[in-house]
Design goal:
Blueprint (H helix, E strand, L loop, with lengths): L4 H35 L6 E3 L7 E2 H17 L4 E4 L13 E9 L1 H6 L5 E8 L2 E9 L4 E6 L2 E4 L2 E2 L12 E4 L8 H14 L2 E2 L5 H9 L5 E4 L5 H13 L3 E3 L15 E4 L4 H9 L6
Parallel strand pairs: 3-4, 10-11, 10-12
Antiparallel strand pairs: 1-2, 4-5, 5-6, 6-7, 7-8, 8-9, 12-14, 13-14
Helix pairs in contact: 1-2, 4-7, 5-6
Bound molecules: 1,6-di-O-phosphono-beta-D-fructofuranose and magnesium ion.
InterPro entries: Inositol_monoP_metal-BS, Inositol_monophosphatase-like
GO molecular function: fructose 1,6-bisphosphate 1-phosphatase activity; metal ion binding
Catalytic activity: beta-D-fructose 1,6-bisphosphate + H2O = beta-D-fructose 6-phosphate + phosphate
Length: 282
């Protein structure tokens, strides 16, 4: 009869591997962020989609290369899903993959606003095991792993406020120009239900702030890109929050997942109700 030690050994090995991946994610995000912050407000070169929400800078591309180089030093054979070229765009259900957004919040980066960061998540068999969202111009680094969530090395957790009038919620991810009724409905749902609203220009920053209690919740009814959402959603969940789709089912990135509702446990039901108001305008 087993004394359970095999299962314990497997758990230990899993945690060790998550801890290794977390260390690599942090090294990679810091290396990428260091390159970006050197150029911030000095050398910002938009190379695609100037003036648009989808602007791309030379730095986005260079940072992704640097992040991937650091990951490959330790995990040369793992797949990469990333916002810029030479990477996949969908998270596979099997195997290890690194989900990379070199600069989440490129528009803020271009305009000299500080809320942008480098996001690196390690996913194994479809589930995140470690992630880092590094915001060098803010000096904030969120790390998510077996031990929970830290910001600059100190543990953080979601807020416990359950009075919507004292909650601040963010409609996030962005709605295209022909989708402004949904955007307006999202904003209306927030201002009519909650104390206040925020929009940061970076979904990873928004989700990181939910994880750390700076915001009570965030939601969208669109399917986010994995690089905009996986690390931050994992942070919210590991910080004690709840992350679902628009049907209230556990959220996991998939190409057809319907929306994202990430909130503290105390606020999630109300944030989900707000998000579901968007069903009426579709
Ligand atoms: O939280 P907000 O203000 O809706 O910001 C959302 C924007 O942030 C982003 O995460 C920015 O992503 P990129 O800068 O990597 O393109 C997008 O999802 C979206 O355009
Ligand atoms: Mg992004």
């Amino acid at each position: 009869m087993s004394d359970g030690s095999d299962a314990n050994d497997a758990n230990d090995a899993g945690e060790r591997s998550a801890a290794t991946r977390l260390a690599v994610a942090e090294r990679a995000a810091r290396a990428g962020g260091a390159l970006a912050v050197e150029r911030f407000r000095r050398d910002v070169d938009v190379v695609a989609n100037p003036g648009s929400i989808n602007a791309v800078t030379r730095t986005d591309r260079d940072v992704q290369r640097r992040v991937v180089d650091v990951v490959r030093e330790s995990f040369p054979d793992d797949a990469v899903v990333g916002e810029e070229a030479d990477a996949g765009t969908a998270v596979p259900d099997e195997g290890p993959v690194w989900v990379v957004d070199p600069i989440d919040g490129t528009n803020n980066f271009v305009r000299g606003l500080r809320t942008w960061g480098t996001s690196v998540a390690a996913v194994v068999d479809g589930a995140p095991v470690a992630a880092v969202n590094h915001f060098p111009a803010l000096d904030d680094t969120y790390a998510v792993g077996p031990g929970g969530v830290t910001r600059n090395g100190r543990a953080v957790a979601v807020r416990t406020e359950d009075d919507p009038a004292r909650c601040t919620v963010a409609p996030t991810v962005w709605w295209d120009a022909d989708d402004r009724e949904a955007f307006a409905a999202a904003a209306r749902a927030v201002v009519e239900r909650f104390g206040d609203m925020r929009r940061t220009g970076s979904t990873q920053a928004t989700l990181s702030r939910v994880a750390a209690g700076g915001l009570d919740g965030a939601f969208t009814d669109v399917t986010p890109h994995p690089w905009d959402s996986v690390a931050g959603a994992f942070a919210v969940e590991r910080a004690g929050g709840v992350v679902t789709d628009l049907d209230g089912e556990d959220w996991r990135w998939a190409p057809d997942v319907h929306g994202l509702v990430a909130a503290s446990e105390a606020a999630h039901a109300e944030v989900l109700d707000a998000a579901r108001e968007l069903l009426a305008v579709r």
